[in-house]
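Please, structure for the following, as tokens.
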Amino acid sequence: MAITDITSGDDSRATAASGLALRRVDGQPVRVLVVDDESTLAELLSMALRLEGWEIRTAGDGFAAVQMAGGFQPDAVVLDMMLPDMNGLEVLGRLRAQNPDIPVLFLTARDAVEDRIAGLTAGGDDYVTKPFSLEEVVARLRGLLRRTSLAARANDSLLTVGDLVLDEDSHEVHRAGELIALTATEYELLRFLMRNPKRVLSKAQILDRVWNYDFGGQANVVELYISYLRKKVDAGREPMIHTIRGAGYVLKPAA
């Protein structure tokens, strides 16, 4: 199944503020299979990918992954190299026997260089090393899915909410045509907010996506960086970043 970026209108699952959502060409959500025996990590990955508007299934071992792939027909697979019943290369071979073109993103240990080389040599499309940021996994998957697309949009690097524009290629941010200088963390936070316009995001969700999944800090770091963003994005303008008491934060076009 080919993948394309389509205009999704008011669909609350749209990831790009301009309404661009990565979907199958039949309009259905992208399907991703997450294979990892660490249940907490698999759940965090699933939550992050569902925020992209994608349909997610998880498997805790290779046998379950192969069985599930047959019925689920995923468009991409996130695959841990080390599973309790078989290694990732064997799972890759069985998945490719079902679907020779399915993109596979390997998860590997930071020091397992031989695993990364073996995975790519065997036909894996990309890899990330643990520990990783959830944002990195999402970005890698979007890149893999676009490369399988027959009709990718040329301007899909731009996120737009009202007069606020973020270019994911150049990392430049403008509001009303004025360039806004952001630190790396401020940029990642703003990008996450802009990929989920009009959606209330909790502090826990923001921590999971902007900081590493095993980040041990307190939720007040989110408050701190939200305040930094407000000073740069909303200063002297109609506010776009809003606090929803007891729930989290939301970015939406100025009234």
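Residues 23 and 117 are 30 Å apart (CA to CA). The longest strand covers residues 104-109.
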